[in-house]
TrEMBL record:
One of its GO terms (cellular component) is cytosol. GO terms for biological process: L-glutamate catabolic process. GO terms for molecular function: glutamate decarboxylase activity; pyridoxal phosphate binding. Coiled coil: none annotated. It catalyses: L-glutamate + H(+) = 4-aminobutanoate + CO2. SUPFAM superfamilies: PLP-dependent transferases. It comes from the Eukaryota. Its cofactor is pyridoxal 5'-phosphate. The keyword Lyase applies. Its EC number is 4.1.1.15. This is Glutamate decarboxylase.
């Protein structure tokens, strides 16, 4: 039998992918390929290119979960073909989401009876949750103003200049002004006194952050609440952006009052995919009560005789994340979450102490807050934080460096987020690697010297 050239070359069920023509041309980038490819070669090519991405477990820039138990992975992969929006077809999945909403609302001390259902929604992340929360505040404010015969064209939100970018998106997409409280040197969260001074009749809410993205610090929601109660001519309410802190404070800082225990806190968002311990793609928004979510924003779907209210920006989405969240709640319970968060905090402390011992860094994160360490070089005249970050990549660590927002932009920090899958052994190795990096940098000419050497060479040429 004579095999034609093409069949012998393309039959990769006989030949290895690496003996086939599929490794001799690069993958298309612009146009859909004309022909199909065998699945083995497609897998190999895509898998191999993906090897060049960083290792998510070593990505210490991110708050987002990078490890879950194999049993949960299985539940999640098994449900990848379930569209969450088909609530009539998948009533159990819908029920899981509702149970999660109840559990989170109770965790945040919503004023609910033991078996009363809470008001809240599962979202793609805190960003979508914040859009929905913002829309509810805006509509409530508009309804009130219209009833009083007052203009509704200039709504604003008072917040710190340290807000996460999703608030800026909300402001631009939904035409609400952000009145930002300026940061100052050494104080990187919203000042409650200045915030309350900025509140006016057009303020739809004050947005406080439990766990600032920049340095993990908790804003003083209680003080904001108390100052607002004193001032409150306009019944201004508070939203708490607890994207990362919402699954930390209830477990290890139960004495901090930041949630629905404070009367002016009307809604709270939290990212299920951060310290909620689920892979990327889930967040939650919880409202204090029905009165805080204007009914005209809710679309009602009837399924199996029950009323299923929906309030989301998108329609279709996967179900896996909801199932993963329910798994984590059942699996860990309060005790498990508490142990995990204490481990994160302890490992963050070891990291912080290790960095302090080098004598080279200022720590700008707080001991109470999100378990992360944000730090800057005491002396960055020869080498700066960006070089430390770059050099750490050689040791496989991904540690970002960034400048603080306006009014503190001369401060550059490195930030290491401690997640549940970051062990003591890794923390200690990281400290050792940072020490090595400092030594290596010491032996290199500074950026400034490099530049002057280069210009000298150029002149000589
Ligand atoms: C991460 C974060 C967000 C955005 O959350 P996603 O879940 O990634 O959409 C908003 N606010 C704060 C404070 C955050 O840390």
């Amino acid at each position: 039998m004579v095999l034609s050239k093409t069949s012998s070359e393309s039959d990769i069920s006989v030949h290895s992918t690496f003996a086939s023509r599929y490794v001799r041309s690069s993958l298309p980038r612009f146009k859909l390929p004309e022909n199909s490819s065998p699945k083995e070669a497609t897998y190999q090519n895509i898998n191999d290119e993906l090897m060049l991405d960083g290792n998510p477990r070593l990505n210490l820039a991110s708050f987002v979960t990078t490890w879950m138990e194999p049993e949960c992975d299985k539940l999640m992969t098994d449900s990848m073909n379930k569209n969450y929006v088909d609530m009539e077809e998948y009533p159990v999945t819908t029920d899981f989401q509702n149970r999660c909403v109840n559990m989170i609302a109770h965790l945040f001390n919503a004023p609910l009876g033991e078996t009363e259902t809470a008001v809240g929604v599962g979202t793609v992340g805190s960003s979508e949750a914040i859009m929905l929360a913002g829309l509810a505040f805006k509509r409530k404010w508009q309804n009130k103003r219209r009833a009083e015969g007052k203009p509704v064209d200039k709504p604003n939100i008072v917040t710190g200049a340290n807000v996460q970018v999703c608030w800026k998106k909300f402001a631009r997409y939904f035409e609400v002004q952000l009145k930002e409280v300026k940061l100052t040197d050494g104080y990187y969260v919203m000042d409650p006194v200045k915030a309350v001074e900025m509140v006016d009749e057009n303020t739809i809410c004050v947005a406080a952050i439990l766990g600032s993205t920049l340095n993990g610090e908790f804003e003083d929601v209680k003080l904001i609440n108390d100052l607002l109660v004193e001032k409150n001519k306009w019944d201004t309410a508070i939203h708490v952006d607890a994207a990362s802190g919402g699954f930390i404070a209830p477990f290890i800082y139960p004495e901090i009052e930041w949630d629905f225990r404070l009367p002016l806190v009307k809604s709270i968002n939290v990212s299920g995919h951060k310290y909620g311990l689920v892979y990327a793609g889930i967040g939650w928004n919880i409202w204090r009560s029905k009165e805080d979510l204007p009914d005209e924003l809710i679309f009602h779907i009837n399924y199996l005789g029950a009323d299923q209210p929906t309030f989301t920006l998108n329609f279709s989405k996967g179900s896996s994340q909801v199932i993963g969240q329910y798994y984590q709640f059942i699996r860990h319970g309060f005790e498990g979450y508490r142990n995990i968060m204490m481990n994160c905090r302890d490992n963050a402390m070891v990291l912080k102490e290790g960095l302090e011992m080098t004598g080279k860094f200022n720590i700008v994160s707080k001991d109470i807050g999100v378990p992360l360490v944000a730090f800057s070089l005491k002396d960055n005249s020869r080498h700066d934080e960006f070089e430390v970050s770059e050099m750490l990549r050689r040791f496989n660590w991904i540690v970002p460096a960034y400048t603080m927002p306006k009014d503190a932009e001369h401060v550059t920090v490195l930030r290491i987020v401690v997640r549940d899958d970051f062990t003591r052994t890794l923390a200690e190795r990281l400290v050792d690697d940072i020490k090595t990096v400092l030594k290596l940098l010491d032996n290199l000419p500074s950026k400034f010297q490099e530049l002057s050497l280069e210009s000298k060479r150029n002149r000589e040429e």
